[in-house]
C-alpha cells in the first residue's frame, strides 16, 4: 500500500524547550526550512502552523515557497496554544471573546489553506482543559468547545477539520484527551467534515494501543482524517524518531492502516532537540516506508489468520521470525 509522506515544517529546523528556550541549534528561516524539506525525496507535502509559519498576511509568500519546492500543503495547524491570550483555553475558554477569537483564527486559517491548495485543518487545542480540581465546568466547557468547532466546520464544508487529541500538556488534563473522547465530540458536532488526527505518540501517552485507535475510528464513522508519526517512552510526549522504541506497536499500526484502507497523509511530528532535524526526519520517513513495505510483504491472510485464532505464543513466534530472522 502506497502512502503520502509529509512533515511539520519546523521539524527540520531547531527545537527549543523550557530549559533552553533559545533552541538547541541555530534557527532557520522559513525559506531555509522549505529547502531542507526538499532534500527528503519521499516527502511531498508540508504542514504549517498558524502564526509560526503562515498568517493571513504572508499567504502569497508561502504559496511561492510551496511552488518553488514542489510541495503540497497538507494541513494548517491553527495556533490555539502559543499565545498568552490562550492560556486559559481557546474554544473552551470561559471568556466568550476568547472563544470567538478561536473561531475567527480557525476561519482565517481555513481561508489560507484554500488559497494554498489545501483542504485540511488539524486542530490541536492544547490549552483547552484544566489543571486543578473544581476549576472547570466539565459539561459547559465541552459544550462551548463543540459549538466553536462546529461553527468552523460549517464555514466551509469542503475543508476537513481534524481534532488532534493528547491526554495532557500544557494543561494537566486536556478535553481532547483520548480517541474515545474525540469520537464523542465529533458525534456531537455531527458534520461530515469533522474527524480525528491520531498522533502515534499521543496515543501511547494515553495508554492506547495505536492500532486499536485506528480501528475504532474506522468502525465509528470512518473518522481518521490525519496521522502524525513519532515515538516515545509513553510517560511523556518525547516526539522521537518513528519506530525507535515501539517497533511492534508501529508494525501493527501500519497493518491496521492498510486493513482499514486509510487514504490520508502520514506526517512526521518529531522534535529532535539534540539531533539534526533534517536527518531525524529523513530517518523517520525511511522507517515509515520500511514498516509499510514490511506489511505489504507479509503473505495475504497470514496476520488475519493469527488474529482470528488469537493464540499468543503462535503470534509472538511469528513476529519473532519476522523481525529477528536468525538461525
UniProtKB/TrEMBL annotation:
- The Xylose isomerase-like TIM barrel domain is annotated at 44-289
Q: Name one GO biological process term.
A: carbohydrate metabolic process
Which Gene Ontology MF annotations are present? metal ion binding; xylose isomerase activity
Where's it mainly located? cytoplasm
Look up the domain of life of the source. Answer: Bacteria
Q: Name one Pfam family in it.
A: AP_endonuc_2
* Keyword vocabulary terms for this entry: Carbohydrate metabolism, Cytoplasm, Isomerase, Manganese, Metal-binding
Subcellular location(s) per record: Cytoplasm
Record's signal peptide: none
Keyword flag Metal-binding: yes
UniProt protein name = Xylose isomerase
From which source organism is this entry? Cohnella phaseoli
Tell me the classification of the organism that encodes this protein. Answer: Bacteria, Bacillati, Bacillota, Bacilli, Bacillales
Amino acid at each position: 500500500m502506497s502512502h503520502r509522506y509529509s512533515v511539520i515544517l519546523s521539524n527540520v529546523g531547531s527545537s527549543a524547550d523550557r530549559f533552553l528556550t533559545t533552541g538547541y541549534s541555530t534557527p532557520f528561516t522559513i525559506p531555509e526550512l522549505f529547502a531542507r524539506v526538499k532534500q527528503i525525496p519521499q516527502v511531498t507535502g508540508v504542514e504549517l502552523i498558524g502564526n509560526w509559519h503562515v498568517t493571513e498576511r504572508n499567504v502569497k509568500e508561502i504559496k511561492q515557497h510551496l511552488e518553488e519546492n514542489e510541495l503540497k500543503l497538507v494541513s494548517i495547524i491553527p495556533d490555539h496554544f502559543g499565545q498568552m491570550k490562550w492560556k486559559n483555553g481557546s474554544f473552551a475558554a470561559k471568556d466568550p471573546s476568547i472563544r470567538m477569537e478561536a473561531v475567527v483564527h480557525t476561519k482565517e486559517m481555513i481561508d489560507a489553506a484554500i488559497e494554498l491548495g489545501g483542504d485540511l485543518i488539524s486542530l490541536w487545542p492544547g490549552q483547552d482543559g484544566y489543571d486543578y480540581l473544581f476549576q472547570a465546568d466539565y459539561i459547559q466547557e465541552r459544550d462551548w468547545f463543540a459549538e466553536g468547532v462546529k461553527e468552523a466546520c460549517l464555514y466551509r464544508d469542503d475543508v476537513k477539520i481534524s481534532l488532534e487529541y493528547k491526554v495532557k500538556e500544557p494543561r494537566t488534563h486536556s478535553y481532547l484527551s483520548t480517541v474515545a473522547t474525540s469520537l464523542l465530540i465529533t458525534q456531537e458536532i455531527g458534520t461530515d467534515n469533522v474527524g480525528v488526527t491520531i498522533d502515534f505518540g499521543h496515543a501511547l501517552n494515553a495508554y492506547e494501543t495505536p492500532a486499536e485507535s485506528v480501528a475504532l475510528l474506522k468502525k465509528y464513522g470512518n473518522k481518521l482524517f490525519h496521522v502524525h508519526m513519532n515515538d516515545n517512552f509513553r510517560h511523556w510526549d518525547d516526539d522521537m524518531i518513528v519506530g525507535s522504541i515501539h517497533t511492534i506497536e508501529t508494525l501493527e499500526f501500519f497493518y491496521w492502516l492498510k486493513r482499514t484502507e486509510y487514504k490520508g497523509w502520514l506526517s512526521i511530528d518529531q522534535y529532535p532537540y539534540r539531533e539534526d532535524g533534517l536527518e531525524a526526519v529523513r530517518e523517520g520517513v525511511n522507517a515509515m516506508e520500511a514498516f509499510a513495505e514490511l506489511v505489504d510483504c507479509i503473505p495475504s491472510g497470514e496476520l488475519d489468520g493469527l488474529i482470528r485464532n488469537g493464540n499468543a505464543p503462535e503470534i509472538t513466534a511469528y513476529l519473532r521470525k519476522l523481525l529477528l530472522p536468525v538461525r
